[in-house]
Amino acid sequence: MKRNVLIVGAGIGGLTAGSLLAKHGMEVTLLEASSELGGCAGKFKRRDFLFPAGATLGMGLEPGGIHERVFRYLQKPFPLEPLEAVMEMVHPETTFTFFRDRRRHVDEIVGRFPAFEQSIRTFYREIYQTASVVRTLMDPLPPLPPANWIEWRYLINSIRPAHMQLLPFMRQTLGQRLKAHELENLTPFRHMLDALLIDSMQTGSEDVSYLLAAVALDIYHEGAYYVPGGLYRFAELMGDSIKENGGLLKKRRTVERLERSGQQWIATDQRGNTYRATDVILNVPIHQLPALMTPELIRKLNKRLRIGMGTPTWTTLTLYVAVETAKLAAPLPPFRQLSIGQGLAEGAHFFVSASQPDDALRAPAGFQTATISTHSEVKQWNTKGKYDAHRELLTDRMLAALEDIVPGFRQAIVHLETGAPRGWTRYTGRPHGFVGGFPQTVANSLFNSISHHAGIPGLYVCGDHIFPGGGTIGAATSGIHAARSISGSLLIEK
User: Fold this and answer.
1) What is the pLDDT of residue 318?
2) From the CB of residue 385, how many other CB atoms can be counted at a distance below 10 Å?
3) Long-range contacts of range 398-405, CB-CB < 8 Å, 24 or more positions apart?
4) pTM across the whole model
5) Residue 381 domain-assigned?
6) 329 and 280 in a common domain
7) Per the UniProt entry, what is one GO biological process (predicted)?
8) 1 has a pLDDT exceeding 80
9) How far apart are alpha carbons 265 and 280 in whole angstroms?
10) Is 302 found in the same domain as 205?
11) What are the Cα distances from residue 342, in Å, to 152, 191, 240, 345?
């Protein structure tokens, strides 16, 4: 039987898998419920203003980075200059700048805490050394947890003697390593780390897996990028590649049912159209699966996937703002993290991404758009009264914090709307507005992750809930693994 692939969902994971498979010469059909590509890395417009829906900071575009390798394989180069000053991190005690240069970055932190100079320097030496070793495993990209003998063999063949030094850290958290370096009680330093980790790892320094935290704290030094327009450009390039290589890409097609018939899968959309395929990749939030599949099929899914389907993650409140730049003392910087208190959510930490003043794709001359987001617990939104009150509370909290560091910010606003959990559910299909994937704790990461193999022949999953986790790099990697399993080829080069 000739193999053909159906992909449900045009997020970064599904687009990565689809573009690789189409380039490889396979028959690919991709269905997307929205009119936009990219999922949480997509976009929307309001009059003259364009807003990134979620993800904003470009990563993985450096030589050998995940996205760079994908675009190189697709023969669609994406050249950009990395940011030397990646972001400003504003905390109640002090303000940091995250510099691309590792030495400059550590020197700046030491300058804030001179009494802890030796501990901070030895901590970062360990972080950078650990990250450099972990990155050598990111070249072959072995999937975890291995689901069959082929993946076990690939993992074993990917291991080198240098990787043995990672074994003592496999079950450790970053909090344990901070204690080993006598930094566990340096609260302002830990708050700075927490602000970096909550966006990438969905948890803080106390609980995050040390090996993944080391990569997360180091990866900005490899290359962080401002992408004109936004990360939706990744999605559009991959969508174009699918069509150029003979694939079909259909928007506004919501798959409502997925069934198994013999050796084939049958998907039915909201219009009653059916699509048959030998292989299916689901780039949908895993919490959607019970609504797509029969209980009998759900019971056949692998155990970790079934557990994950019933496990809540963070939700979010996102503010989409346009400002008149002339009313500010200076243009908004492209990336800024703010911390206004303890805790990881509910406005205690939030991230601000602003368009460059000359980015005409996002705003006309004299204006900037900004996306402001914070993590939130789903229990804060479970009644209408709580929902309305919490949206107002978090909106005021974030705007007030910005006004403190950017005088006149409120007065400069010419457009403001909120993306609360129901909005995320409506426009991205994410139940309860769950975003970001699972917190990358020891219990959830690496060998405890959810495999891209769903547990039923010919069915695969990708996205931010699947190994290796959230962010565009994580979603793309899960898409690569699904494409490799179907094609039987490594596809992308190192």
Assistant:
1) 96
2) 7
3) 398/317, 398/319, 398/338, 398/347, 398/350, 398/372, 398/374, 399/319, 401/338, 401/340, 401/347, 401/350, 402/338, 402/352, 402/372, 405/90, 405/338
4) 0.97
5) yes
6) no
7) carotenoid metabolic process
8) no
9) 7
10) no
11) 42, 8, 44, 9
